[in-house]
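Please, structure for the following, as tokens.
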Amino acid sequence: MADAAHAPTASEYIVHHLTHFNSSGHPQEKVVDFSIVNLDTVFWSVAMALLAAFLMYKAARAVSTGVPGRFVGAIESVVEFVHEQARSIVKGDLTYIAPLALTSFVWIFFMNAMDFLPLDLLPKLWEQFFSATGRDPHHAYLRVVPTADLNATLAMSIVVLLASIYYGIKVKGGGGFVHELFSAPFGDKWFLAPFNFMLQMIEYAAKTVSLGMRLFGNMFAGELVFMLIALLGATATWWGFGMHFLTGLGWAIFHILIVVLQAFIFMMLTLVYIGQAHEHH
């Protein structure tokens, strides 16, 4: 970021790493701003989607009637696990629901796993590119964990919301879906219709916001801890380097659980919400 003569303070270091490279060309002050596109989030999320799709494609091409190799076996285990979860939760046709759950699990896992890269590796390469193109490397902002961006996690939760509404209409019909909006959960009385509809809207909004916020909050916190650990190594002392290594290793091992668990939770809640859309009240 800055040269040795103008080394950044701890707060400047963290603020720099928490700033997105966006379409405005300036640091983004708001957490969510729909007038600005976080280009780094878009790039890395698409890159992880392509990587996940490539690996699944390679596994599908390698499937044979014989004993599967380790790679194919691992992918088959994930596919079977997700399909079993979908079958146990959603009582209906899984033709598109199981692939949606699998996509969400694998894609979010890969996006979360970007947190395991050395914190300064890609940002430093990005700064070198800025310098090579004649631009100020101090403005080379880059965040590489898409799920630590609330815009991305809310976008995914909105997709889940739309999927649950779609299946609600598909299973119950347009009239049945609308009727349920005004008749559940308090009952099919005309004077209860406004309260039923209000509660239904609150429920849909709460599900969507909580789904996106849960993933964002956990990944943002994990990213911030890695930044704090990185600052220990900046003390240029044996104590600092030792603590940097030990705490970094410990947090990285623990973070494996967070990366997998958050992908699993998002997938399971996706299935639960779509499964609820299949139920009649």
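Helices lie at 10-17, 39-62, 70-89, 97-113, 121-132, 150-183, 193-233, 238-277. The chain has eight helices and no strands.
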